[in-house]
Amino acid sequence: QVVLQQSGPGLVKPSQTLSLTCAVSGDSVSNTTAAWNWIRQSPSRGLEWLGRTYYRSKWYNDYAGSVKSRVTIKAETSKNQISLHLNSVTHEDTAVYYCARDLVVAIARYYHYYGLDVWGQGTTVTVSS
Amino acid sequence: DIVLTQFPGTLSLSPGERATLSCRASQSVDRTYLAWYQQKPGQAPGLLIYGTSSRATGIPDRFSGSGSGTDFTLTISSLEPEDFAVYYCQHYGSSITFGGGTKVQVK
After folding, report:
1. Which helix (H) or strand (E) holds B4?
2. DSSP letter, residue B56
3. B95 to chain A, minimum CA–CA distance in Å?
């Protein structure tokens, strides 16, 4: 059973950096069929994908255009966890943040997508002074 | 990026009724990369359907997905009390996008 356990502060001051961690058990962050995503949810923006990291003989990252200049997602293999860093936060970054795994398997040169099948419990982050 | 539009925004139905939820993509998408999720208050979304029509592990067969091109549908054949929730469609590609959600509420 794969479990994602999130941790990190629930309150961040404007202009500072939001940092969250997602500890993975039951799978390896280096799994070559998995990607590790950060997603946030707010009433104004709905579900918003922030980015992902994944290993395919080397590490790759993809980021959403809306946060690309401010976001870093990293895998820490020694701890089997992933992290999210979002700098220069404003009130608009107030949201529930989730980490989630998805699986993409190449079969006969075609990629099969199995969805975001495991989610962390969510962390409510408020940006306020 | 693919924009996903879900409709209706809210569906008011009674237990036992059939629910039909729609998701329209801003351009044609590969069926393989379309998924559906259910979210209940205070919980993370949970995977229901992947690849347009494949049920995730443990999902009852009253849930079914269909569609192609730009139009996709999630059908709940007979609503159970635990099915009243918000449902999202999602597309996977170079980025991931979600629809705005459909709330299925008790009539």
Report:
1. strand B4-7
2. P
3. 7
Phi, psi at A91, each rounded to 5°: -60, -30
> What distance in Å separates residue B13's CA from the closest CA in chain A?
23
Q: Which of B85, B104, B14, B13 is nearest to B44 (CA)?
A: B85
Tokens 């401010």 correspond to A70
The answer to whether A104 contacts chain B (CB < 8 Å) is yes
Nearest to B26 by CA among B89, B102, B87, B104: B89
- Contact A36/A99 with Cβ under 8 angstroms? yes
Q: How many residues does chain B have?
A: 107
Mean pLDDT score across all residues of chain B: 97
- Residue B1's pLDDT band (boundaries 50, 70, 90)? confident
Torsion over CA of B24, B28, B31 and B33, rounded to 10 degrees?
A: -80
The span from the CA of A95 to the CA of B97, in Å, is 17
The pLDDT of A94-111, averaged and rounded, is 92
Please count the residue pairs, one from chain A and one from chain B, whose beta carbons lie less than 8 angstroms apart.
Answer: 63
User: Distance (Å, rounded) from C-alpha B34 to C-alpha B40?
Assistant: 21
pLDDT at position A13: 98
Between chains, do A62 and B94 touch, taking CB under 8 Å as contact? Answer: yes
Are A20 and A97 spatial neighbours (Cβ–Cβ below 8 Å)?
yes
- Distance between CA A79 and CA A15 in Å, rounded? 29
Instruction: Select from B41, B90, B101, B61 the least CA-distant residue to A100.
Output: B90
Could you tell me if A51 and A60 are in contact, meaning their C-beta atoms sit under 8 angstroms apart? no
